[in-house]
Specification:
Blueprint: H1 3-24, H2 26-48, H3 51-70, H4 74-89, H5 104-120, E1 140-145, E2 151-157, H6 167-181, E3 187-192, E4 197-202, E5 221-226, E6 236-240, E7 243-247, E8 249-253, E9 263-267, H7 273-284, E10 289-294, E11 310-314, H8 317-344, H9 350-353, E12 356-361, H10 363-373, H11 383-392, E13 394-401, H12 410-415, E14 418-422, H13 427-434, E15 440-441, E16 450-455, E17 461-464, H14 478-485
Parallel strand pairs: 9-13, 9-14, 10-11, 10-12, 12-13
Antiparallel strand pairs: 1-2, 2-4, 3-4, 3-15, 5-8, 6-7, 14-16, 16-17
Helix pairs in contact: 2-4, 5-6, 8-11
């Protein structure tokens, strides 16, 4: 007989003997399992019994055992009862081991692969990378998950025929990836068109607890906000949460040698465009003059009224037109004075070199009102300050709603090369607002002051505007209001509490003869004279 037949016959005999042995010893196995259950139950009850009750418990058990022993056939009946209860307790088979938990990568990456397949699968591709029966391991080269099991980094390969140069095609893929990886975070998409690879990285949230303060910057440098560490090569010390930390700022450089002399801020309603204009005003007040136009008329900039260095804060169409006409004349006057100083070789006058800032908040609302009344568009009066403001030391900063972008004049859009967009925006809106494609997909719910900035021809970077609330807003936190009040030039009775009066004496004090003191001149916050002073054009 061949050897393999002997081996197979031996295996059959051993299997049969094992089955018979298991059938023979099955009752003993059941009773043994039940006894183990009983012993585990008795051990648990003994450990749960308080120490002061263990003595009486032992006495009762011993008395019960003695009683059973003294009964006729008591030990036999007790043994039969124990075996019966053990057989009943051990009748259930041993619980099967719990199946291992599924791998997070297999579940989430498999779902992402299936979601990308309809967009990256070509009907005429003989060997497609993405197909409905494929595996994500064939196209996903590397991935990482954070401690909470969320996708933090991914690199994938896509077919060469995918139209990765079209913004609409990219937006579809980015939307699918964000939907599967989580819409609560921002993601950066790095499209490598040469090697047909896409690198996806989840970005760390920017800090939102940086309040308005004096930033370490030179005159003419405006800190628009803060960004990622790889967004700039510079850090500045800032007060954050009661401590001094180093944060990377987004710096906008202004002045006669700036390539981006004017700023345009667009954003969704309620996402901090007015706060950014207020932050800019607080930074330039120590060395510049301001003209503020509040087109929305909500009083967001009323805290700047009657402050030193602030010429006027206008909310009406009539006041805005008068202020902008004066600004155009002032720009012309400055240009004439500076040119005359260059021709004669003398120093320019101080009133022509002191920076002048025009801050406009929602000017398109005034443009619609002017069109309805048949009056000049306030944006048309900005043409001279915008085109020649860099030479005349005049800087224009405009903030408006992103939905009003089409109502902004072409001159404003062409001359404002420093761009900021705030709030959650789509790919098309971000491209139109910043003038460049945005490689970052915003989160579904962006905090106040979160957005993106692009200075000149640079790449867009993330931005978090410092918390600069209106100090006249009673609903704002007191700590944030106090931080803004500390940056305003002098005290204002509308925001700062009056000084406490000394206690009144019981008797009048003795007055000694002395030299008369000069009369004190209290600060008058009322507009006693026009806030705009016309200057002759030399």
């Amino acid at each position: 007989m061949p050897l393999h037949r002997h081996l197979s016959k031996g295996r059959e005999v051993a299997r049969t003997a094992g089955d018979h042995a298991s059938d023979m010893f099955a009752p003993l196995t059941v009773i043994g399992r039940g006894l183990r259950h009983h012993s585990a139950w008795a051990k648990g009850r003994w450990q749960a019994t308080p120490k002061e009750r263990r003595g009486p418990t032992v006495f009762l058990v011993a008395a019960m055992l003695i009683g059973i022993y003294l009964l006729p056939h008591g030990l036999l009946f007790a043994l039969i009862a124990l075996m019966a209860s053990a057989a009943w307790a051990g009748r259930a088979p041993k619980a099967a081991a719990a199946p291992p938990a599924p791998d997070v990568a297999d579940v989430k990456l498999g779902a992402l692969y299936s979601a990308l397949t309809p967009y990256l699968c070509g009907p005429e591709d003989a060997n497609p990378l993405y197909h409905f029966e494929g595996s994500y391991k064939n196209v996903f080269s590397s991935w990482e998950f954070d401690g909470e099991g969320r996708l933090s980094r991914l690199e994938l390969t896509y077919p060469a025929y995918f139209t990765d140069t079209e913004p609409a095609a990219r937006a579809r893929i980015e939307q699918v990836v964000q939907g599967k990886a989580g819409r609560a975070r921002e993601y950066r998409f790095d499209w490598d068109e040469e090697s047909n690879r896409l690198r996806i990285a989840a970005l760390v949230p920017l800090p939102t607890d940086i309040v308005a303060q004096r930033f370490v910057a030179a005159p003419g440098e405006i800190v628009l906000g803060f960004t990622d560490e790889d967004g700039t090569a510079r850090t500045i010390p800032v007060g954050q949460g009661g401590a001094i930390t180093q944060q990377p700022p987004v710096v906008w450089r202004t002045g006669p040698r700036s390539a981006e002399p004017h700023l345009l801020v667009l954003g969704a309603a309620g996402h901090g465009t007015s706060s950014l204009i207020r932050s800019v005003a607080l930074q330039v007040l120590p060395y510049a003059d301001l003209v503020v136009i509040d087109g929305a008329g909500t009083g967001e900039h009323a805290c700047l009224v009657n402050r030193p260095g602030v010429h006027t804060v206008e909310t009406s169409l009539h006041g805005a037109l008068a202020a902008l006409e004066w600004a155009a004349q002032e720009t012309d006057r400055r240009l004439t004075a500076l040119n005359a100083a260059r021709h004669t070789g003398t120093a320019p006058p101080e009133d022509a070199t002191r920076p002048l800032w025009l801050l406009l908040d929602h000017p398109t609302e005034l443009s619609e009102l002017a069109q309805a009344e048949g009056r000049p568009d306030p944006q048309d009066l900005l043409e001279l300050p915008l085109r020649h403001g860099r030479a005349a030391r005049v800087t224009v900063a405009i903030a408006d709603d992103i939905e009003a972008r089409d109502r902004i004049t072409p001159t404003v859009r062409a001359t404002t090369r420093a761009r900021v967009v705030l709030g959650p925006v789509g790919p098309e809106e971000g491209h139109a607002a910043l003038g460049a494609p945005l490689d970052i997909v915003p989160a579904a719910h962006a905090p106040l002051g979160r957005g993106y900035a692009r200075i000149g021809n640079g790449a867009p970077v993330r931005l978090q505007v410092p918390a600069t609330v209106d100090p006249l807003d009673d609903e704002a936190p007191a700590a944030l209001r106090d931080a803004v009040i500390a940056l305003l030039p002098h005290r204002d009775t509308r925001t700062e509490a009056a000084a406490e009066l000394p206690p009144r004496p019981d008797r009048p004090p003795l007055v000694l003869p002395a030299e008369p003191a000069p009369p004190a001149h209290p600060i008058d916050l009322a507009k006693g004279e026009p806030m705009i002073r016309s200057r002759p054009i030399s």
